[in-house]
């Protein structure tokens, strides 16, 4: 029999689910990363597990008002998926959106109410263990600095606009400041000017995610993003991570091709549904 259990204490939740999530560390990079970043002050809308005979089959975590993160599901029958969808509908007052493994999440949304949701983004998760395409010697990777702030805040704003997650100018300034001060954002520099950026996020036991890859229009189709991601991926491997990972938009075949050339291999398709 399936059982849904909600949590109020993030420490108890983390203690109960982390070892389960780590069994598929890269596929579960998103829930692990979010979980590891939680503090007493964090806004959390939902923490829950679905168990069968006291064994976890699904972890649910919501810190974003518009979506619930679903852990990588095990292989299960359509009947079990229907039971899980029923549990969610009965125990969660409002399911604003779901992000998770594509086939499973598609079935969940179809059962809950297909007409109530739209696809925000079709994604693919990639994993890299070895860089196959080294960056060009024309340019270099460097940490973003405070002197770059005017440009980085503009790039953050444009990046969010491109992926359909529009933010205000003030929010882009706050995000840019956070990226710079946390020393996790890098840029590819050519002739003294930065031309593209990429950030690291959600470090886990042996993996770290490459995110926020952005190149302004005037610098595209010159190989800068490829150089930046290649160099940053190698830097993370050199720092001791066994793998790096990233999410791509499946509607952008160019970026998917670039990442595969660098050495990224697809491991799971993910989909984001919202109301």
Automatic annotation (TrEMBL):
N-acetyltransferase domain span: 139-275
Keyword set includes Acyltransferase: yes
EC number: 2.3.1.-
Molecular-function GO term, any one: acyltransferase activity, transferring groups other than amino-acyl groups
Pfam families reported in the protein's UniProt record: FR47 (PF08445)
InterPro entries: Acyl_CoA_acyltransferase, GCN5-like_dom, GNAT_dom
Coiled coil: none
SUPFAM superfamilies associated with the record: Acyl-CoA N-acyltransferases (Nat)
Keyword vocabulary terms for this entry: Acyltransferase, Transferase
Top-level enzyme category: transferase
Descriptive protein name: GNAT family N-acetyltransferase
Organism: Lederbergia citrisecunda
Keyword Transferase: yes
């Amino acid at each position: 029999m399936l059982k849904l259990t909600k949590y109020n204490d993030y420490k108890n939740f983390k203690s109960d689910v982390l070892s389960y999530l780590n069994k598929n560390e890269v596929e579960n990079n998103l829930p692990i990363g979010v979980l590891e970043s939680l503090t007493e002050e964090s806004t959390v809308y939902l923490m829950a597990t679905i168990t069968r005979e006291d064994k976890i089959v699904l972890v649910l975590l919501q810190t974003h008002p518009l979506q619930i993160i679903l852990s990588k599901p095990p292989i299960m029958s359509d009947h079990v998926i229907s039971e899980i969808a029923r549990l969610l509908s009965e125990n969660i007052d409002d399911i604003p959106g779901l992000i998770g493994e594509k086939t499973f999440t598609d079935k969940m949304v179809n059962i809950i109410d297909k007409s109530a949701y739209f696809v925000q983004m079709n994604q693919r998760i990639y994993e890299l263990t070895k860089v196959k395409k080294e960056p060009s010697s024309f340019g270099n990777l460097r940490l973003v600095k405070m002197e770059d702030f005017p440009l980085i805040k503009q790039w953050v704003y444009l990046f969010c606009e491109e992926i359909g997650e529009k933010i205000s100018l003030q929010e882009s300034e706050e995000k840019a400041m956070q990226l710079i001060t946390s020393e996790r954002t890098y840029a590819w520099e050519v002739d003294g000017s930065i031309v593209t950026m990429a950030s690291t996020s959600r470090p886990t036991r042996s993996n770290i995610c490459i995110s926020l890859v952005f190149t302004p229009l005037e610098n595209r189709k010159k190989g800068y993003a490829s150089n930046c991601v290649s160099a940053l991926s190698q830097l993370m491997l050199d720092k001791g991570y066994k793998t790096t990972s990233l999410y791509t938009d499946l509607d952008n075949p160019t970026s998917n091709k670039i990442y595969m050339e660098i050495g990224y291999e697809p491991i799971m398709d993910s989909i984001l549904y919202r109301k």
